[in-house]
Amino acid sequence: MKAVVYHAPGDIRVEDRPEPTPTEDNLIVEIHCCAICGTDLKLATVGNPRCHPPRIIGHELVGHISHVGSQVQGFAVGERITLATTLACGDCQHCDLGLGNMCPNAKPISYDFDGGFSERLAIPSMAVAGGNVIKVPDSVSDEAAALSEPLSCVINALELAGVKAGDGVLIIGGGPLGALHAEATKALGAKEVMIVQRSEPRLSLLRELDGVRVIDGLREDVMSVVRERTGGLGADVVSVCAPTREAQEDSIHFARKGGTVSLFASLPKDAPDITLNSRVVHYGELRIVGASDSRPEHVVRAVQLMAEGKIDTAPIITHRIPLEDIHEGLDLMKNKQSLKVLVYPPRR
Ligand SMILES: [Zn+2]
Ligand SMILES: [Zn+2]
To answer: Which residue segments constitute the domains of the chain, with CATH numbers given?
Structure first.
C-alpha cells in the first residue's frame, strides 16, 4: 500500500509499504482522509527526535474499521472512527493526575506507531485500552471528522483559558489552528471573536468564517479594534496561535484586567525566550496559561460539537490533495497558502 514515510529531518517519501497485520488485539482501519498538521510540517523540515523512522506519519485521520480482533470489545466492522493520537501509559504520576497528554511514557500515533497518510492503519491495543479510538456519528462528515484531533487541542486550550459564554476573545495568528480557535470560541458562546492575521491569502480565507472580526495586523491598529469591540476593556481571553516571540510578547497588552492569555503555539526550541512586561501581568492580575496536545475526552467533545453543527469546517478546509502530492501539501502549509489541507489515499 502507498504511504507517506518519515526517514529523517526533512526527508519525507511516498513509498510502498507492507499492509498492516490484523491481530487478535488490534483494529485495522481503512483511511478515508487525513489532514496535514503543523507537526507533520515540522518533520518535513526540522524533524523531531520523538518520531522513530522509518515511520508512516499523519494523525488527523478518519476511516472505517475493516478488522476487529477477537479480543477487542465495543467496536464493529464498518464503524467510522477518529483518534486521540497521544497514547498515554495510564500508569504514571501524570496519568494519575489526569494529564495523559503530558505522560512521559506516551507513545503518539505517527511517532511510535504508524499513522494515517496511508491506505490502511493498524490501531494498537494500547489505543483501544486507553479510550483513544473515538466513534464518529453519521451526522459528522469525513472532512469534519478529520479535524476532530486539531479541534480537540483547541478545546483543551479554551478549557484551560476558561473561555465562556459572553466573552470577547482575541486570537493572534490566523493559520488553521487559529481558524479552529475562532469556530470553537463561537461554539462556546463567545460574544466577540476577533482574529489577527498579517498575510494573504489567509486574510481572505478567514473572512469566509461567519461572525468573526478579521483584523489585518499590518494595516489596522489591533489595539483600537480590540478596545472598540470590548467596550474599551480589552479581551477576556487572548489566544496566541502564531509561533512567534513578538506575538507572545504583545499578547498581554490586549487582555483586559483580570483576563487570561493562552500561549497555544510553541516557539522554536533554539529561541524559546520572551521578554514579559511583568507590571502588566501584576497590576492587571492576568493569568497566563499554556496548552499542549489533548486527551481522549477533548476529542469526544470535538466530535460532539461537530455533531451538534456548532463547528463550520467548510471554510477551514481549503485544499484536498491525493497522497502522492504530499510535498505540494506541505509546501502550501509552509508558505501559508492554505488553512487545512486534506490528504486522500488512493481508492482501491
Ligand atoms: Zn495534529
Ligand atoms: Zn503515563
So the answer is: 2-147+316-344 (3.90.180.10), 154-290 (3.40.50.720)
- Tell me, in angstroms, the distance from the centre of ligand 2 to residue 296's CA: 14
Q: What is the 84 CA–ligand 2 centroid distance (Å)?
A: 15
Quote the pLDDT of residue 71.
97
- Cα 98 to middle of ligand 2, angstroms: 9
CA of 150 to the centre of ligand 1 (A): 5
DSSP calls for 91-102: SSHHHHTT-GGG
What DSSP string describes 322-344? EGGGHHHHHHHHHTT--SEEEEE
Q: Are 240 and 175 in contact (CB under 8 A)?
A: no
What's the rounded Cα separation, in Å, for the pair 308 and 90?
30
Residues, Cβ < 5 Å to ion ligand 1: 37
Which bound ligand lies closest to the C-alpha atom of 126?
2
| pLDDT the model gives residue 348 | 62
The bound ligand whose nearest atom lies closest to the alpha carbon of 111 is 1
Q: Which of 48, 290, 330 is nearest to 153 (CA)?
A: 290
How many angstroms does the Cα of residue 347 sit away from the middle of ligand 2? 37
For residue 37, report the distance from its CA to the centre of ligand 1, in Å.
4
Cis peptide preceding 345, ω within 30 of 0: no
Ligand nearest to the CA of 103: 2
- CA 304–ligand 2 middle distance (angstroms): 26
Question: Which among 298, 346, 329, 289 is positioned nearest to 37, based on CA atoms?
Answer: 329
Burial state string for 36-71 with b = 16 or more CB within 10 A and e = fewer than 16: bbebbbebbeebbeebeeebbbbbbbbbebebbbee
Query: Which residues of the chain fall below pLDDT 50?
Result: none
Please tell me whether the overall predicted TM-score, pTM, comes out greater than 0.90 for this model: yes
| 3-state percent helix, strand, coil for the chain, nearest multiple of 5 | 30, 30, 45
